[in-house]
Amino acid sequence: MDSGSTSDAGHTEADLAVLIAGTWQLESVGGNTVNPDLQAHLAFNSPSKLAGNSGCNQFVGRYSIDGNLLQIADNLATTRKMCLPGIMQIEQRLLQALQGQWQVEVVNDQLVFIDEHGKPQLQARKVIE
């Protein structure tokens, strides 16, 4: 296994915090591809704080880590701009996908949120800064 990849076993909270740190360009939510032109992204830029853009609105919130489980607080704060219906649907899927607890895998600069059935629900690619 190279230094840029990991499996779902053996994480500590510090390991996962380091792996997810930075900005991630959203690629898919709930199996639906996200247009890269929307610049939808997630940013884990400080311990326990999450920020991002849904392609329409910005959001901020808090998260915690337990092993390879990521818990995102239910009370994300968002701006309330209206956008085209298709973009609003993506935003709604993203905000729903961010709620709750997720198994997280990071492999080759790809962040994946996995549901309780083992299905990927959110995929994002690391933004090289």
What does this structure look like?
With 129 residues, this protein is of the alpha+beta class. Helices cover 16% and strands 43% of the residues. The protein has 2 helices and 10 strands, in the order H-E-E-E-E-E-E-E-H-E-E-E. Strands 1-3-4-5-6-8-9-10 form an 8-stranded antiparallel barrel. The longest helix has 13 residues, at 85-97. The model is unreliable at 1-10 (pLDDT under 50).
The gist of it:
16% of the residues lie in helices and 43% in strands. The protein is built from two helices and ten strands; from the N terminus they run αβββββββαβββ. It has an eight-stranded antiparallel β-barrel with strand order 1-3-4-5-6-8-9-10.
- The counted number of beta strands is 10
Q: For the report, how would you describe the main beta sheet?
A: 8 strands, antiparallel, barrel
Instruction: Tell me what portion of residues adopts beta-strand conformation.
Output: 35-45%
Secondary-structure element string: HEEEEEEEHEEE
Q: What is the overall silhouette?
A: globular
Derived structural class = alpha+beta
Q: Compute the average pLDDT.
A: 87
Low-confidence stretches: 1-10
